[in-house]
Amino acid sequence: xxxxxxxxxxxxxxxxxxxxxxxxxxxxxxxxxxxxxxxxxxxxxxxxxxxxxxxxxxxxxxxxxxxxxxxxxxxxxxxxxxxxxxxxxxxxxxxxxxxxxxxxxxxxxxxxxxxxxxxxxxxxxxxxxxxxxxxxxxxxxxxxxxxxxxxxxxxxxxxxxxxxxxxxxxxxxxxxxxxxxxxxxxxxxxxxxxxxxxxxxxxxxxxxxxxxxxxxxxxxxxxxxxxxxxxxxxxxxxxxxxxxxxxxxxxxxxxxxxxxxxxxxxxxxxxxxxxxxxxxxxxxxxxxxxxxxxxxxxxxxxxxxxxxxxxxxxxxxxxxxxxxxxxxxxxxxxxxxxxxxxxxxxxxxxxxxxxxxxxxxxxxxxxxxxxxxxxxxxxxxxxxxxxxxxxxxxxxxxxxxxxxxxxxxxxxxxxxxxxxxxxxxxxxxxxxxxxxxxxxxxxxxxxxxxxxxxxxxxxxxxxxxxxxxxxxxxxxxxxxxxxxxxxxxxxxxxxxxxxxxxxxxxxxxxxxxxxxxxxxxxxxxxxxxxxxxxxxxxxxxxxxxxxxxxxxxxxxxxxxxxxxxxxxxxxxxxxxxxxxxxxxxxxxxxxxxxxxxxxxxxxxxxxxxxxxxxxxxxxxxxxxxxxxxxxxxxxxxxxxxxxxxxxxxxxxxxxxxxxxxxxxxxxxxxxxxxxxxxxxxxxxxxxxxxxxxxxxxxxxxxxxxxxxxxxxxxxxxxxxxxxxxxxxxxxxxxxxxxxxxxxxxxxxxxxxxxxxxxx
Length: 759
Description:
Blueprint: H1 4-11, H2 29-41, E1 62-70, E2 73-80, E3 96-104, E4 111-114, H3 122-129, E5 134-138, H4 148-160, E6 166-170, H5 172-184, E7 191-195, E8 201-203, E9 211-216, E10 226-230, E11 235-239, H6 258-272, H7 277-287, E12 289-291, H8 301-309, H9 315-323, E13 342-344, E14 353-355, E15 357-360, H10 370-390, E16 392-397, H11 403-417, E17 421-426, H12 432-441, E18 445-448, H13 458-469, E19 478-484, H14 489-500, E20 510-513, H15 518-546, H16 564-569, E21 574-575, E22 577-583, E23 586-592, E24 595-599, E25 604-610, E26 624-629, H17 636-642, E27 659-663, H18 666-671, E28 705-709, E29 714-726, E30 729-741, E31 750-751
Parallel strand pairs: 4-5, 5-6, 6-7, 11-15, 12-14, 16-17, 16-18, 18-19, 19-20
Antiparallel strand pairs: 1-2, 2-3, 3-4, 8-9, 8-13, 9-10, 10-11, 21-31, 22-23, 22-26, 24-25, 25-30, 26-29, 27-28, 29-30
Helix pairs in contact: 1-2, 3-4, 6-10, 7-10, 11-15, 12-13
């Protein structure tokens, strides 16, 4: 959803000669937009007003689960199986949760909240919270789309506390944005934003019993990010860091195994933190987390065994004592005067913080795998840094409502999936000289902008001017992108300026109206891959001209495909197939030969797909796809078409003439009455066809239909049941729902190779 100011601002100002408008800091951006709209619309020509923006629909299945976290600490997880936004971070389609952590005082009379959920969860959250006496709120981030629940709590506090505003502790960018949002919502008198910084602590009840130290963790995408460390329980409330997008249906879902959590953390890190690895490394060092449990497992089996052998401590008490530090500071601080929630400056100077648990904004806390999670983050950060130092691409952008930032994140993911590093540049934060330094390091770039008042904001215009004026940048592959609410002039301005300056574009300009869809995000990822291919091709040409090997490759080492292992693996034969997948407005098709049967009951297949393939994002758990087994002697046209390079965003399925849609809904088949029996002479006898996987009637192009190649020998309609990340490939186990033979006399086309190091 896009608010009215965005739509109106981008509708005005068609003149290419207009001066670029200044994009102010996020804290005052909304007020500035309203002022700019009033000024521009006053002189705009008379025309029909733009349609009113649609409100964000509430997810159909919203629920709130409550779980115990630590001593005097619980969690309300507002969850849904749906994705709240179309962003790459939600790509695994596992749902999401917005977590609110509740800190209780020693007398269980008052509570403090850490974070509040998105507006889509506000109603259910308020009912679950009930009439709790909230003393204050701590925010690891502030989003205007997550203000409804906060203002509701603040108004209730204001009414029940004789007009006292609710203290809300946050970083300066978040506090400034909160103050502005409260003023617009007529809640300014109910909320008291309190700025906290590094070295401060929040005494949440004013009596010294719960002291939460502040750790700012800003990144270009999250300049407001802050973590809070609870000295009483040694729980670190990390906000966006260590998050995953997973639905939490009950308290049991709040504790997951490391094996199940790892793929979700890997995906989230690749999408949100790998493009800003240097900021992620700084955040980890600043947080200074030192896991208390050396093994990292929950519960501590070894300590439990030793305590039981000694005849001693209750196991739950032991865990609380060693990892969650229950009750140790309450008695010592009992004499403190109760002044209400307050900031204690200079509270902490040590760099290491004992951490028993990471409590993120999204997904389950790190019960049992705090050590593994921290080590994994450091490993991922180091790998991304090495990738960036070897060869990197710069993504420059500014974003008014987050949509352009979402596009930038998707392009960055496509680049990184191609093996290159990323330099993420928020033009609102970096100075002109810092942008020059980034452009000197990168070997390609993409630049994006929203359209505000018919033009690009000043930070983007400044960055563009620096890029164009530097002669060495003209040989670097580039691309432009942007979002808008009405006309989108900024994208055209960016592209025209670069093309007039002699730059070479790696992909067509990306123009996103309002918020991105699944297809738009896939187009951005494919564009990122196209940009990476041109960067690598440029490097190969330069290396060839200079008579040297590609950087990072040892020229003396024998090629990998000539080793005995590679030759032996290459003798494994595969069947040539075409995989077609669709979801919403997005579709993809790819050739696959690593396909094998995996189970009899239910009938199941495994398929391996390289993680940089365009269709990989549409093969998540729960996605459906069609598998066409190519026939020997009739595979030439399909291979020629599906193996060629496509422009980003091209519908590969619609462009192939030999596609038909077959329905794959077994439930609908079972509901239908059996057809009348045919006469004996009309019966087709096909003994090789499994009746449970028989061909069904041709269907219209809807979500229940599978795209199938007409010339295929057979087809299967499948649903992905599980995924396993295997090096540079992902292996999907899929259950076969329907299928059948298309040519009873055809034999499958086999793929013979001489090496196992390529297709």
